[in-house]
Amino acid sequence: MQKRSVLVLAFLAPAILPGLACGRSRPPAAPAEQVFRFRLHEDPPTVDPALASDQFSEAVILNVNRGLVELDPQTLEVRPAVAASWTISPDGRTYTFQLRDGAVFHNGRKVAADDVGYSFMRLLKQETNSPRRFLLEPIEGAREFTDGKSASIDGLLTPDERTVVLRLTKPFAPFLSQLTMANAAILPREVYDDPQKAYLRAPSGCGPFRFSRWEQANFIELVAFDGYYGGRPALDRVVIRMIENATSALQEYLAGGLDSLDETPEETDAAMQARLGGEIHRYPFIGTGYIGFNMALAPFKGNAALRQALNYAVDKEYLWGVLLPGNQPANGIIPPGIPGHDPALPGYPHDEAKARSLMARAGYPAGKGLQPIALWVNTGEDNRKIAEQVQSDLKKIGVTIIVREVDWAAYISGVSGTQDKPGQAQMFRFGWYLDYPDADAILRPLLHSSNWGPAGNFGRYRNAEVDALIDAALDTADAERRADLYRRAERIAVMEDPPWIFLSYYQSKTLYKPYVKGVVLSPLGEFRLPLERLKIERGAT
Amino acid sequence: MPVLLLAAAIVWVFVFFLPGDPARLIAGGASADPGVLESIRQEWGLDRPAPVQFFHYLGKLVRFDLGTSYVQRRPVAAIIADHFPPTFILAVAAVLLAAGGGLILGSLAALYRGRLVDSLVLGLALLGTSLPVFWLGLILMLLFASGLEWLPVLGYGMDGAFLPFTSIRLPEWDHLVLPAVTLSLVSMGAIARITRASLIEAGTAEFLQTARAKGASRARVFARHTLQNALIPVVTVIGLDFAGLLGGAVATEYVFSWPGLGKTIVRAIGLRDLPVVEGGVLFLTAIFVLVSLAVDLAYLYLDPRVHYTHVG
Q1: What is the ipTM of this complex?
Q2: Which of A194, A244, A389, B185 is the most buried (most CB within 10 A)?
Q3: How far is A248 from chain B (nearest CA, A)?
């Protein structure tokens, strides 16, 4: 250790001193070069599709890699990607994909059916430890393969170079949507079998952009891939810059160092709002914010009236209209834009009188006999504001809230607990964005009793009717009938047995320079912007 | 070496008792498959009893193996090698500015003691030491980058040259100015004050009269006798400042998006990337020890009375 640091010191000292004095300016970029620069708060934790489980990682992977199918960022429909077409058998169990002819990996090799097999087995393999292997678990024999009981996957067949057949254990309606996720990307074996794991720093795939450089805590650079099956993108380069501090990032955007920013100036900053006017975009994002109740602990265990009372007591209109303008007050669980969203759901509009009478029915008239309740939030200014507002709203009906603000890692442990032991948090502020646009992607992980505890259902909600409806929707192929089943499940969970205080449906707030053309304001969020559609037209502004 | 071992043990204990489960974050955070969680714990040895984990860690340490990052899945040494150069460059630039500025201002204040210049320097020094660096950085950014557009707003730049024979990329130099000035202003005040105080104290010493009586010129007396004697405490302050800056100037790195080691360690704490936290802190401890040693050795040149002899 000591030896190493001496070496570094000795090396650097002579080189820096003269450099400091002379300075050095950047050569101007060729005017014709098309470069798009956007900001992430910090480095993506990983760029390995199998390991990704967050938006930042997906922001890179979805531009470098492609799967069999992808989502249209506007309509949210599943459309062809590496697969040119597919058929689903009448029993809903067998999916047959025809691969397109022109798909090529960044190293020049053609994508073949075997590559799909390799990539899916890699995702499911025990050693990969993928947090998202559940995506492929509906395939027959997938679990046996993961557990090492079988060397192959029964339901994964590649009858010829261009055909992939996936046979499911039973019909699973959101399967195709799940295949659009970054984790199901198709990877070149020759790169991902590397024992040195160079792919962790230099990923490869068959997407529109090649991975070029990554300097940790500084930037990631992608360059256009000439051989992309959809045609070479108009952008020559994409630069993803890591900038943690929001104020600094906004200054960099204003100075012209960023073409887009996932952060907009404060609503109260009228001058800035006026200056940026046309560059501020607000649009729905498929996610829901809420405060969860821990239903394994007192006082919420078995007391639906108390949970309803708290819902009526929180003034959501004030929260999202005045305190933190932007989000849409929520009346339920399934956000707008997702089949099953129910605009007619009454929800819990602010009503203090109703809240008081429900408190009495819950056994705590005017809060008498109720111990102070711990509300956990993870560190963040907005979270603090929300918690303080909820605290003051609930005070009015006699409920004392103690806010506990901790960092994300401590929060997750405190909220989720272990399989057998509930978390310490009695209430917790949480949000969920849907991994794919299907009501199953929010109802099942958060409320189905099979995901009890750390798997996602932190509040340990268990409602047999809700479980049954979510299960029934999984086996239903008909879209309208499915949506109806989800609406029924949501209505029970929201109106009869509320697991949360329903706070908001998310919105994205993004800045784009006017010269960036082809922007799609996608409900999947700013990080799912299809960069291959963008063009820089500086002359046009 | 004992200092480092002690530091290693302390860091390990602190990190071990941090609330939160690293395996949980690797397994996807918000929703985690219990099977995946279990196998991640096995992969990283997190399922073993605490003493076993500790001795395993120490065992690797004595072989100079800092372990592998849970998140980036590459050696901690490689991560330090990536992020220490930016920290080092920034610290050197800041300490040069601070030392230069502090010595000049301090000397001026001592020379014009009790006059306007003196009060101005003392006032500025107080301001520099008491302003929060985060705020100062933003103000400088707004003024010189956003307002006057003389300098880049933030970042390390993408096109700096590589240090010959290494994979270390130097910053684009104009990007270095604002963070270095921000950092230097904080230490400059302290250096100016200590310079002023030592010069005044040395200036009244009796040996100066002797020197003058021997016929030495005013300038020679100042350079050869006053300054040299005054420098010892100044060098101590500069050395300690430098050591502190090498520990990562987290707030400055944060404001200016500087890819330094301090910010990297703070982020690793958030991600519970424990090997990076342990390795990073230990590395910084070693650097601190080395710089302190260098300061002690500098006394040998500055003060002929100082001798280091081996005792026992």
Answers
A1: 0.87
A2: B185
A3: 6
